[in-house]
Structure formats: C-alpha cells, structure tokens
C-alpha cells in the first residue's frame, strides 16, 4: 500500500499556476480608454501647472488627476467631483497646518487626524476622508511652493482637468452596460434551464441548484445597475453621449423590470423546490417554464437589437394569455398550481422589460 493516498497527496504548484493571460488581456481591452484618458489628463495637468503657472514640480496636479479618474467601473462625474473635493480638502488643511507647524512625525500625525475627522464630518462617503488624508500626507511632506497656495492651485488644476476629461473625453459606457446585461440574461437562462430539468425529472437536487442560481442573480444585477448609473450620469454632462440617452433609458427600463423578474424567479424556484419533494415529474409545469425561458432568450437578443422587442412581446403575450393555473393543470396538486400562479407576475415583469406598459401587461394574464 502506498504511503500516501493519491487523492489527498500534495500537488506542487508554481507561482504562476493561477495566472491567466487571457483574463489580463480582457481587462486591458475593457480599460484601454480609461488608460488613455488618465495619461492625457495627467499630462495636460502637468503641462498647465508647469508651463503656464511656472511650478517646477507640479506633483499634486498629476496625482489628483490620476486618483480622481482611476479605473473604477463607476465613472460618474459626481463621483469624480467628490474625489476631487476630498483631495482639495486634504491639500487645503495641509497648507493651513504648514503655517503653524514644521513637518515631522508627530506633526504629521496631528494633521492626518484632523484631516480624517474634518473629512468624515463633511461627507458620508468612506472614500472622501481617505482621498483627503492621502493628499494631506503628500502636501505636508513636500517642500513649500514658490508662493502660498501653490499646491492647492496644483490640486485644483488636476481636479478641473479630471472633470473636464470626464465630460469631454468620456469613456463609452455602452460596452460595459451591454456586457453586464448579457451576464444577467445568461444567468437567468441557466437558472430557468435548471428549474426545467428539476421539474421534468422531479429532481429535488436540480431544483435546489436552480434556486441557488436564482439567488445569485443579485450580484450581476447590481453590477449592471452600477454601469447604467455611470452611463446615464456621463451622458447627462457629455455632449458626445447625448445621442445615447434614449438607448440608456431603454436599457434602464429593461434592467428595472428584470430586477423584479429575478425576484419573482426566486419565488418560482422556491415553490418548485418544495413541489418536487415527492420526486414526481411535472411535465406540464416544466413545459410552461421552458416556454418562458425561450421567450426570455428573445428578450436577451432585444438588449442589443431593439427590433426584437416586438417578437419578445408576442412570445410572452402568448404565454401570459394561457397562464390560468386551473386550466393548465386541472388535476394538478396544490404545489403545481402554486408554481404556475407564481409564473404570472414573472411573465408580467418580462413583458414590461420587452417594452409593454405595466398596466397593459397586467391585463394580459387571465383573471383567476
């Protein structure tokens, strides 16, 4: 008998075992516009402070620009302005402190504590005091400028440049929004497919997995909401993205309806999980869920192609008009009819996502 069990033996790994070049290339593809934006804005800030104002080393102009723009998914102008405000607060406190203190370890501690307290009082954002403290530390340790207020002027140049670049050279938000939307619809499709298999086979484990998948939809939905918020905020200030406002509003309507639809999907999955505890297959219920899944696939295509909304509405309307639990499962058990009843609000939300007014969508399902 071998000394070690091959199933539990130590497997040697290398430092690069978990590194995936493809993932890095995808990150680079998604961020190249932001990288160019940061480089251009930081270079312009340095040039303005150095050439026009004559500051020999405008470090704060560059650091404020880079930190304000960043690579965050949420590039809303309000967030950029908030970060700029925090940094300028930190620089201003440092400038005032240097009128009375000489840079040293305990003096830095006092100034940092004061900055964090003031910044936390001024803003509920947790990033605001951190941004202020970082700039306080840099400004407090740097040599004094050529005149009083030189460094806060540098910071203001960097902040203004960051806000201008956000508005005049915006990151196109559509790529991230559409990727997030596809991720949500992909997860919805997988949850429904598992639910169909669980109902057809009377498989409690598959139904439980469907419920788990439905519960995991909140993360992708939140990411989609963040990218939508950022896109709509940028389009409201950027003249180059005004043409996207109607499309962004349409995608917002789809997101909001899908948010409600996924909540109802969790209810459906939970009831189905309870219904299949007896191990009996439920082909009739599974067939209805499969129809809804296929209609949702058409709706997913409509995210990129608005012309498909009519096809999605027609498919969902055809399902909605038949969603009478008593008619679909006249001899069904209470659990079956409970699942079918929970499909009604789900289909209504999907119809709204496809562009039908909620009042009209609600009247598509028969009265019970």
Describe the structure concisely.
By secondary structure, this protein is mainly alpha-helical.
What does this structure look like?
There is one protein chain. The model has no long low-confidence stretch (mean pLDDT 85). This protein has 2 domains: 31-168, no CATH class; 174-362, Methane Monooxygenase Hydroxylase, Chain G, domain 1 (Up-down Bundle). It has 15 helices and no strands. The termini are far apart. The longest helix is centred in the N-terminal third of the chain and has 32 residues, at 21-52. It is an all-alpha fold and 368 residues long.
CATH topology of the largest domain: Methane Monooxygenase Hydroxylase, Chain G, domain 1
Number of helices: 15
Overall tally of domains:
2
Give a count of the beta strands, DSSP E runs of length 2 or more: 0
Please tell me how large the radius of gyration is: 28 Å
Overall spatial form? elongated
* Alpha-beta content class: mainly alpha
Largest sheet: none
Strand content: under 5%
Average per-residue pLDDT, rounded, comes to 85
Percentage of helical residues? over 70%
What is the N-to-C order of secondary-structure elements (H for helix, E for strand)?
Answer: HHHHHHHHHHHHHHH
CATH class of the largest domain: Mainly Alpha
Low-confidence runs of at least 5 consecutive residues: none
CATH architecture tag of the largest domain: Up-down Bundle
Distance between the termini: 68 Å
